[in-house]
Design brief:
Elements (H helix, E strand, L loop, with lengths): L3 H8 L3 H16 L5 E2 L11 H10 L15 H15 L8 E4 L1 H13 L5 E5 L5 H8 L3 E5 L9 H7 L4 E7 L11 H18 L4 E5 L22 E6 L12 E4 L7 H14 L7 H8 L9 H16 L3 E2 L7 E5 L5 H9 L3 E2 L1 E2 L8 E5 L4 H22 L1
Parallel strand pairs: 1-11, 3-4, 3-5, 5-6, 6-7
Antiparallel strand pairs: 2-8, 7-8, 9-10, 10-13, 12-13
Length: 394
């Protein structure tokens, strides 16, 4: 008999994954070119050639398949530290970097290291719903903060939700699912409130910056680097999106020296990597990443897809904000029940994820990281879908 918690999770399996599996069945039935699968954020752009060359080169290292430090190869961590210092004017060294099994692994080892039972972690609606599972993995409590009509945090609600039991706040910008980027003004106000609350409650409140989409931004929008605003910031990053390597599960956690008790925290994350069963991040791809820390894949296809999809939806009477980053668009459902809207869309072979999966009913998420020709063809289907909605409303 499985545990009660896992039984609940099995019964409420990820809607995103369910839609992805449904998409595979539809593609087998109708052909890939006739299914408009906007469900899973699976990068469509190929990794840079340099990545594959670096992987092949890494295979020539005699000890490539051996164990290493739980925090990862020292030379890899040093190259990442130097790259961050160059880009963001930080002062990292290899000791500040812990290699992780993707951003998900990084978040889990961080939460394992800082959370006591029943301590609270604040998240901003809409948010990636796996955060809830990660927090509950370590008996923490999720506290949700409301957003405004632009999907920006409601700062008044944020201030109210911070209590003496608050241990951490998770920020995801560029944001999944909304596609917005939190401005310097927003980050500055968030930092001001956190500093005030740290002083009021006389204990550390960590700011966890989850940054898998940092490199996917449009229109020259700036993504603030949070350590410059708030000293107790832990940065979590992965190469799944920037180098199109989601299956390789490789990322890192960066802990600045300025973080309260940083040395002890670094030790805790290193041990958590071991005891959670990760042991260390994948060896081969670590070495390959070291050769690719200053490059990204070509993001121009995502920007092209964004423009085609956004303009096509607006022209056909849909309501949505133009994404500033990521490869997601958060669309307002034209009917009250967005799950029903998703079901109707399936009749037109359009797959989307209900906003309730991100704690925001009434919206749907579209992942436009797919072939441009699929995005182009989908516009006529979205028109047919809207016509169907209007016909049923009469």
């Amino acid at each position: 008999m499985i545990s009660n918690r896992m039984k609940k999770l099995v019964n409420n399996n990820s809607v995103i994954r369910q839609m992805f599996e449904e998409g595979k069945k539809l593609k087998e039935k109708y052909g890939e070119e006739n299914v408009y699968d906007f469900s899973l954020g699976n990068p469509s752009v190929q990794p840079p050639d340099k990545v594959n060359l670096a992987i092949r080169k890494s295979l020539e290292i005699n000890s490539i398949h051996n164990y290493m430090s739980n925090s990862g190869y020292e030379d890899v961590r040093q190259k990442i530290a130097e790259s961050l210092n160059l880009r963001f004017n930080t002062k990292y060294s290899n000791k500040n970097i812990i290699m992780s099994v993707g951003a998900a692994g990084g978040i889990n080892v961080t939460l394992e290291s800082i959370l006591n039972p029943d301590e609270e972690v604040i998240v901003f609606i809409p948010y990636f719903m796996e955060y809830k599972n990660y927090i509950e993995n370590y008996n923490g409590k999720v506290v949700e903060v409301l957003c405004n009509e632009n999907f920006e945090p409601d700062m008044e609600d944020f201030e109210k939700k911070i209590t003496s039991n608050t241990k951490a706040v998770i920020v995801n910008s560029p944001n999944n699912p909304s596609g917005i980027v939190y401005s310097e003004k927003i980050i500055g106000e968030l930092a001001r409130i956190l500093k005030m609350k740290e002083k009021e409650f006389n204990h550390t409140i960590y700011l966890i910056s989850d940054e898998p989409y940092r490199e996917i931004v449009y229109d020259n929008i700036n993504v603030p680097y949070l350590t410059h605003y708030y000293k107790d910031t832990i940065v979590i990053y992965c190469y799944s999106k920037s180098l199109s390597l989601p299956g390789e599960r490789i990322g890192f956690v960066a802990i600045p020296d300025e973080v309260e008790d940083s040395e002890e925290l670094i030790q805790a994350l290193t041990i958590a990597t071991r005891i959670l069963g990760f042991v260390n991040a994948p060896s081969l791809i670590q070495k390959a990443i070291a050769e690719c820390v200053n490059i990204t894949c070509d993001m121009s296809e995502y920007e092209k897809n964004r423009d085609i999809l956004y303009n096509g939806l607006i022209d056909n009477g849909y309501e949505c904000k133009k994404p500033q980053g990521t490869f997601y668009l958060f669309l307002k459902s034209p009917i009250q029940n967005e799950k029903e809207f998703c079901n109707i869309a399936k009749k037109f072979n359009i797959l989307m994820v209900p906003g309730s999966s991100f704690a925001m009913p009434g919206y749907v998420r579209l992942a436009f990281c797919t072939e441009t020709k699929i995005v182009e063809k989908s516009i006529d289907k979205f028109k047919e879908l809207m016509d169907e909605i209007k016909k049923n409303a009469i």
